[in-house]
C-alpha cells in the first residue's frame, strides 16, 4: 500500500498498519456515536482519485469529499452545486457562475482555472477537440461550448468532480494520494481496507451531520452483514435477500429498499422476414417468410404471458419489483399510470389467434449465464410462461461473451438482458436501448435489435434540448409511452437494493447527489425505530435510487457512459 512506503523497518511499518487499522475499525460495539458514522460498502477500494472512481465504494468516497458544478436533487432534477447559476449566451455556449469564496480542503480558493482543468481531465479533452470545450475562463465564471444538447451537457457536469488544477500530478503511481476537494468531508486516511474522513469545518453550505465518517470496503456479503451485526458498521449496502427477514425481525436493525435503476428486460427482434430461430409449428425449423413479431398483437401476447413478479422472485427474491417502463418511480422521466402488464393467459391466446397464430409458433429465447442473479433460472421460467400460451419456446443460456457477440449481430429474435442507468434519469436508457443506432454518434449503442422509430428519436432529441426541467420531462414521458406501446422492449423487473442500518439511524433512499453520510441521520430521542419499509410491493412515490455512480465518458455525448453500461 503506497501510504506505507516511508517506514524503514518492519516494526515501524507494523505500527503504522496498526494505527491505520485503528482509524478504520471502531473500538466499541456501537460504531457511531452522535459524532461518528461507519458505512460498509459491497466493493473494493483501489484509489481515492475522484477522476478514477469506478467501484461503489470509490464513488461513495468521492461523493463525500468532492463536488461538481451541478448536482442531482430529488427526482433526478439537475440543481446548482458549485455553480450558483448559469445562462445561455447563444445556441451552443453557456456561462456558469460560481458560488462566492468556495475553498478546497487545503484552504485555496476555487477558480475558473480549476474548473476548466477538471472538465478537460474528466472528459478527456486535453489532447484534442471533443463535444464539450472550455471557452473563456475567469476567476468566478467559465464559458462552455457544447456540441451536445443541454441535458447531455448537464448530466456530464453532474459527474465531473472539481479538483485543483495540477496537470503534473502523478497519481498513476500512487492511487492513495489525496487530492483536495470542496465537499463537506475531507479525506484523512486512505487505503484498500477503507477511508476515513472528517467534517469540513469551513464547508460553504450547511454544516456536515457527522464529525467523522469511515467507509469500509467489504465486498464479501457475509463479512458485510457481520460488520452490521457486531457493531463494526452502522450502515451497510446490498444486504443479501436471504438476510433481510432475519435482520429486520427485531428492533436492532432497520431495512430500507432502494431502487437502483437496474432493469431486466426481454428484447424482441425487429426482423421483418426470415427471423432467426422462429418457425411455424407446422414446419419446425423452416424459416418464416414474415416474422410474427412484426404484429403488435403478438408482442402484446408475449407481454401478457409473463408473470413479472414471479420472474423477479426467481431472480432476486424479495429485492425485485415488476417493471412496466424503463425506470422506477422517482427517476426523472418516470410516467405515472404506466403499470406492468399482468399475466393473462386467456387474453394472450386470443391475441395470438387474432394475429393469425392460433397454434402459436416456435422460438428460441437467449440470455447470458452467470451475469445477473438467477439469470439462467429466470430465462427458463420465462420460456415456460410463453409455452403456456402456445408459443413453443426454448431457453438458451450462453456464456456472456458468446451472448454479447451474437446478440449484437442480430442473431436472435428474442433475448433477456439487463441495463442500469448511471443517473436517476430515463434519458440514458432511451438513448442506449431504443434510439435508432448510429455508429458515428454512438446513439443506440445497446439497441442490438436495431429497433427504430423516427418519432421516438425526435422526442428524445427535443427532450435533450430543453433547458427547463418540466418541458424536458414531458418529452421524455411521451417518448416512454411510445416505446412501451410498441412493445419491442418488454420491461420485466427492477432490481432493488436493501440497505441495513442499526437502530437509531434513519437512511434516506432518495436519488440525490448528497453524500451517504448526509442521507443517514440519527433519530431524535424518543422517536424510536421507524416502521421498516417493505422490500417488495409498490414503492412509495418519494423513493428512488441510490446515489448515482460516477462515470467515464466516451468521446461523443450520445455515447456517454455506454462503454461502462455495456459491461453490465
Question: How do the helices and strands line up, and which of them pair or pack?
Answer:
Blueprint: H1 10-24, E1 36-41, H2 56-65, E2 70-72, E3 78-80, E4 83-88, E5 93-98, H3 112-123, E6 132-137, E7 141-146, H4 150-157, E8 185-191, E9 194-199, E10 212-217, H5 221-229, E11 235-236, H6 241-248, E12 253-268, E13 278-279, H7 296-305, H8 308-316, E14 320-322, H9 345-354, E15 362-368, H10 375-388, E16 392-398, H11 400-408, E17 414-420, H12 427-434, H13 454-464, H14 469-486, E18 489-502, E19 505-507, E20 520-522, H15 562-565
Parallel strand pairs: 1-10, 1-11, 15-16
Antiparallel strand pairs: 2-3, 4-5, 5-7, 6-7, 8-9, 9-10, 11-18, 12-17, 12-18, 13-15, 14-18, 19-20
Helix pairs in contact: 7-9, 8-10, 12-13, 13-14
